[in-house]
Amino acid sequence: MSRVRVKFCGLTRAEDVAAAVALGVDAIGLVMTRRSKRFVDLEAALALRAQVPPFVATVVLLLDDEPAWVREVISRVTPDLLQFHGEEPADYCTGFGLRYLKAIPMASVDNVSAYTQRHAQAAGFLLDSHAAGGQGGSGQAFDWTRVPRELGRPLVLAGGLNADNVAEALRLASPYALDVSSGIETAPGIKNSEKMQHFMQALAAAGADRELR
Ligand SMILES: O=C(O)c1ccccc1N[C@@H]1O[C@H](COP(=O)(O)O)[C@@H](O)[C@H]1O
């Protein structure tokens, strides 16, 4: 038995980081691709990162970004983990020398295990509802019965999660971790403390301590 981990992603405000940490999240996500409405620049990311205490991970989300930008983000923000959400090939992802999650666009991937084999060095896989070439963070869920039983790596479930569906997500997908953004906000990048709290309460009520894959 193990506890389901939680990442709140797309935080842009100090008060939202403080609320997330107080609620006991395992990771916060900073979106540092300029394509996103939740983009935070280097100065903002540095300030938010400085607020994150030990034992809470800082994950930086990128999407088909220029390597020079990725290197600058790594050296300035010092994230614990990268999350590549685009069509980045394995040699690009491994080239930065930092552990990474690879997002899998479930709307356009039929064979998940073939996809994971191309990213043998990924620390884990994040299954999201978008199609290749599209963006995540849409608040849309995919069919969770499509989540494979065995990935051989930690599986992070994302896409349209909220307090109302988290129990069903756990039941159908048994993920290692949950990643939520739209479901805890009032507008892109503006998190809502009540929604954050409701999400964590719903997770606890659903039994966050469970057998995981
Ligand atoms: O949050 C964004 O703006 C974003 C932009 C580009 C790619 C991914 C993005 N977010 C990630 O998408 C998933 C699902 O989010 P949601 O809960 O459906 O809003 C999650 O991993 C976000 O971190």
Automatic annotation (TrEMBL):
Mind telling me which HAMAP family this protein's record contains?
A: PRAI
Q: Which GO terms describe its molecular function?
A: phosphoribosylanthranilate isomerase activity
Domain called N-(5'phosphoribosyl) anthranilate isomerase (PRAI): residue spans:
7-202
Which pathway does the database say it acts in? Answer: Amino-acid biosynthesis; L-tryptophan biosynthesis; L-tryptophan from chorismate: step 3/5
Q: What is its EC number?
A: 5.3.1.24
Recorded family membership: Belongs to the TrpF family.
**GO BP terms, alphabetized:** L-tryptophan biosynthetic process
Task: Supply the alphabetized keyword list.
Answer: Amino-acid biosynthesis, Aromatic amino acid biosynthesis, Isomerase, Tryptophan biosynthesis
Which species? Answer: Tahibacter aquaticus
The name of this protein is: N-(5'-phosphoribosyl)anthranilate isomerase
Q: Which InterPro entries match?
A: Aldolase_TIM (IPR013785), PRAI_dom (IPR001240), RibuloseP-bd_barrel (IPR011060), TrpF_fam (IPR044643)
